[in-house]
Amino acid sequence: MQTINIALDVMGSDHGPGEVITGAVRAARAYGIHVSLVGKAEIIQAELAKHDTAGLHFAIVPAAEVIEMSEKPAAAVRAKPDSSMVVACRMVRNGEAQAFVTAGNTGAALAAGILQIGRIKGILRPALLTHFPTSNGACVVLDVGANADVRAEHLQQFAIMGSIYARHVLAVPKPRVCLLSNGEEAGKGNQLVLAAYPLLENTPGINFQGNTESKDVVAGLVDVVVTDGFSGNVFIKTAEATASMLQKIIYEELTAGPVSTVGALLAKPALRRVRHRLDDSQYGAALLGLSGLVVKAHGRARAEGIQSAIRFAKQGLEHNILDEIRSGIHLVEAAAETESAALKVTVSA
Amino acid sequence: MQTINIALDVMGSDHGPGEVITGAVRAARAYGIHVSLVGKAEIIQAELAKHDTAGLHFAIVPAAEVIEMSEKPAAAVRAKPDSSMVVACRMVRNGEAQAFVTAGNTGAALAAGILQIGRIKGILRPALLTHFPTSNGACVVLDVGANADVRAEHLQQFAIMGSIYARHVLAVPKPRVCLLSNGEEAGKGNQLVLAAYPLLENTPGINFQGNTESKDVVAGLVDVVVTDGFSGNVFIKTAEATASMLQKIIYEELTAGPVSTVGALLAKPALRRVRHRLDDSQYGAALLGLSGLVVKAHGRARAEGIQSAIRFAKQGLEHNILDEIRSGIHLVEAAAETESAALKVTVSA
């Protein structure tokens, strides 16, 4: 395999280019990859000069514009052809980089990916997949925000892509795929879930286990949680917000009296480990279904989160996830064609 | 005001009739209300005999059938006219009780309420409202499960009912009403949220503050969270599941080494207070929009949860919440009529 080159959007993080470049330096050293730093050249040069980069491979790729968090995604991508996101995606399209990594505006990353890199043939909608911490490890959830409104056949493709991802990247041999619903029983759900259920039951190559609820997801009983981008977004953001609030409440209660304050001091390293187990800024999100790999780091990601997102991209490339998705979608399309051909034979017979 | 009589479904709790009756006895004593215990008479008599009920008012109302958790709601309500749920709802319809309280099958409680008690005139869909703990108190969320699929005009009515509830029961003078969405900015959301947004902006009598995300809800920045029953259900169940998991993880980490174990022992009372602040079995859910008050206790509610649900019903009755909803819906209907009359004048002029 050729050395991996990542096109990294230096301009997208809430914490500024410094954190992004620190993350890039750490990733280059840890994983032996090349990184193209895309953004304002003078800023990149100044930040890069603060690090020891001996033996590492960086290219500075100038991009004069920046897409801001508040901009309308598709309009911004069209209006700013020289933005760091668009330039980085163009590198992936031209084969100058194998993956695009950004901590910027999610919608814009999606729009830039679709417009510049394009979808895999047969994929109706790309989906944002994220790792989600459970009590015994992690599962993947998709879509968590690329598509607020979807149809059942979109969920079917999400199930296929998520399953392939879990098999290859998480190394789960037969990933348990479930639909997120308002009850575990078959027959529970909104119209979308009700329509998707039989479709997933009849999808070859996935291990569909029916509906699931949040408590089973956090308990680690599911490997791939399939949902629309609206509910998926509510799901991950609620888990994140609840975990933060609970840590705050625990701190308040622990420091409310002298005895428990001593307890809190002694328990500090344990609470730090808890925070680390749950820290979602470590988890990147992959935009699956495009002909090139796009990884979204958390907007609040610091150097560690950027490094994580780059590792995430590297894993996807090493496991050849895009070709696996191509084959998976092709398999399902072929099965559907065979079935419809058989149906025609039956009808004409 | 006449003495309140609650029709209590004794048969619905996961923990059996004993817990329900203990909760009823405590509520009767604490709030000076009457309770009609609806269910299998011999079981009720046996359980009631275990308590000192001197000075309390209970009626035993026999109902031979029980609607189970796994039954299809509407079919079960139709097939079991002598079930505890249907008998209790009939008491409310006939004015023999002012509210129906159950810890049983939520869908069946809704179906029994709609079929036996009926909707308030003008209400399109009743909604399930629940109290939700925040870092500085509580807000209300509706719908959390009565309607998996809704239209924008349903969300408008949920906003009106939730606002009235928060004003009267939570005593918030100008409750901040928000739509749960996948981003705070106007323009974020799925098709449903996008359609509901301008409708809520133009609804008289509510203090609409736009879209909200989970982090602002848990931070206590919203009083009334308006959402469809599918997303609302995912929202409250994810918060509940995350809080449970986090408590489990914290316990694991705290007991992982000898120093933090000592810390954990000292911190125990604080952690117990945390659990209490978050214990959702204390929170009942009201089914708003029916001509009678229906309160759903958590299926896992023990005596304390049943007592809470009865207190919840009592508060709703004391604040005359049903009449307030009638006026609120009438106000909006009248405003819409005036507007449409004005439009006709303009068109014909």
Report strand order across the widest sheet of chain A. 3-2-1-4-11-10-5-6-9-7-8
CATH architecture of the largest domain in chain A: 3-Layer(aba) Sandwich
Q: What do we call the CATH homologous superfamily of the largest domain in chain A? A: Isopropylmalate Dehydrogenase
The CATH topology of the largest domain in chain A corresponds to: Isopropylmalate Dehydrogenase
Major beta sheet summary of chain A: 11 strands, mixed
How would you sum up this structure, described in words?
The structure is a homodimer of 349-residue chains. Chain A folds into 2 domains: 1-118 and 290-318, Isopropylmalate Dehydrogenase, CATH 3.40.718.10; 132-140 and 147-281 and 324-349, Isopropylmalate Dehydrogenase, CATH 3.40.718. Chain A is built from 12 helices and 11 strands. Chain A has helices at 17-31, 41-48, 73-79, 84-93, 106-117, 152-168, 191-201, 214-218, 229-254, 258-278, 303-318, 321-348; strands at 5-9, 34-39, 57-62, 99-102, 127-134, 137-142, 176-180, 207-212, 224-226, 285-288, 293-296. The first copy, chain A, has an 11-stranded mixed β-sheet with strand order 3-2-1-4-11-10-5-6-9-7-8, with helices on both faces. In chain A, helix 7 links the parallel strand 7 and strand 8 (207-212). Chain A is globular, with a radius of gyration of 22 Å. At the A-B interface, helix 8, helix 9 and helix 10 of A face helix 8, helix 9 and helix 10 of B.
